Amino acid sequence: MHTETALSPLESAARKNLAATLTTPVAAEQLDASLNMRDAWGLTSLNKILFITSLCNEMDISLGLLTEEDLANMHSLADVCQILNKHSTK
């Protein structure tokens, strides 16, 4: 039996922004949130910053709230959502 889990607004936006940032075409709904973004899709450090910046802008999350440790721990889409969820009001 297949059951779909509704995505939070943050995860939906994260998937959309990551898919738009990747140089390899991947549909947002096909992204596996548990995979390391660098290893799975070749996300560079610059593109990671562009992705996080665009996501934070869309979700009204101040980049100033993020620490270097937060950024260093954002390996997977799930990590990004977990860390940003602490700062999200949407």
UniProtKB/TrEMBL annotation:
InterPro entries in the cross-refs: ACP-like_sf
Protein's name in the database: Acyl carrier protein
Organism: Erwinia psidii
